[in-house]
Amino acid sequence: MIRTTLLSISLMLLFAVSSFAMPIAKDGCGTQECSKCHSLSVKEATDLLSFAGVTVKSVKPAPSHGMHEVLFQKDGGVGIVFIDYGKKHLIQGVVIDLKTKEPVAAHDKELPGAKQFSGLDPKLIPVQYAMVMGNPKSAKKLYVFTDPDCPYCRTLHPELQKLEKMMPDLAIHIMLYPLKQLHPHAYDKARVVLATKSRKNLDLAFEGKDLPKPKGDEGKADVDAVIQFAQEQGINGTPMVLLPNGRSYQGPRTAEQLKEALK
User: Fold this and answer.
1) Phi-psi group of 169: left, alpha or beta (phi > 0 → left; psi -120 to 50 → alpha; rest → beta)
2) Is residue 70 a contact partner of residue 48, using CB atoms and an 8 Å limit?
3) Is the pLDDT assigned to residue 102 strictly greater than 50?
4) CA separation for the pair 222, 196 (Å, rounded)
5) pLDDT for res 253
6) Partners of 142 in the beta sheet?
7) CATH of domain 12-110
8) Using an 8 Å Cβ cutoff, are 235 and 5 in contact?
9) Is 184 helix (H, G, I), strand (E, B) or coil?
10) What are the tens digits of pLDDT across the range 118-155?
């Protein structure tokens, strides 16, 4: 029912060739369609994404140069990821048009009914399933939908640790949202953290350390509730940081910058 997009964003290193090659390359990048030089077949994409157990349906040039956009299907849902022209890097996230400030995708027509996230009422967030960093009784709150095996989330977590020291009056609600298609082990890690309600386990998970396996169905209902809520709201990637007013924060994510945004 729900589009499950494997998301979070890093495009910086993908633009290196074209702007510098144009003056000297008669037939190089910048003088013709990128697809004439750079291609990715469905079979190649299938091989590259074999670890995720997805079915690749289509590959198109991404809205941003330097990437292929891959439409995949799994467990009845569809989503997109990006693979760079060098076929060495997988990029999860959304491409934002800087003029319209809206997400864009080459496979828009193949994603009917996909809901784009535009913010939500914080009162709707099921914080009963959150792990809280900082002061749980604080009226000032930050909400973070995050995956313990997402590399961008692992970069963010130490910044949140710094932030809780910088702002002891802040409650940081950690909503564990494992992207199972890309990070198959993240689901069990989230279950253990929520079942034990252990801050130590939370930090260990984001450090990439091993956690005990969940017993029976412990933690499953809590994690499933967060996943369902996030997908229903159109939160398609991690980390998703929500400010106290429920709007998403799209800026740099250092502790100092988050503190400034909270002002």
Assistant:
1) alpha
2) no
3) yes
4) 12
5) 85
6) 172
7) 3.10.450.70
8) no
9) coil
10) 689 999 999 999 999 999 999 999 999 999 999 999 99
More confident residue, 22 or 155: 155
* Encoded amino acid at 174, one letter: I
Statement: residue 180 has pLDDT above 90: no
The domain locations on the chain are: 12-110, 122-262
Alpha helices in the chain (DSSP H): 16-21, 42-48, 151-166, 186-196, 199-206, 220-232, 255-262
- The answer to whether the beta carbons of residues 57 and 25 sit under 8 Å apart is no
Instruction: Provide the 10 A C-beta neighbour count for residue 100.
Output: 8
CATH architecture of 122-262: 3-Layer(aba) Sandwich (3.40)
What whole-number percentage of the chain has pLDDT above 90?
A: 60
User: Residue 68: which residues within 8 A CB-CB, separation 6 or more?
Assistant: 38, 40, 45, 59, 60, 61, 62, 82, 83, 84, 85
Whether residue 15 has pLDDT greater than 80 = no
Which pTM was predicted? 0.62
**Interaxial angle between packed helices 186-196 and 220-232, expressed in degrees from 0 to 180 and rounded to the nearest 10:** 120
In terms of Cβ atoms closer than 10 Å to its own Cβ (0-12, 13-18, 19+), residue 128 is exposed
Q: DSSP letters along 203-223, please?
A: HHHHTT---PPPPTTTTHHHH
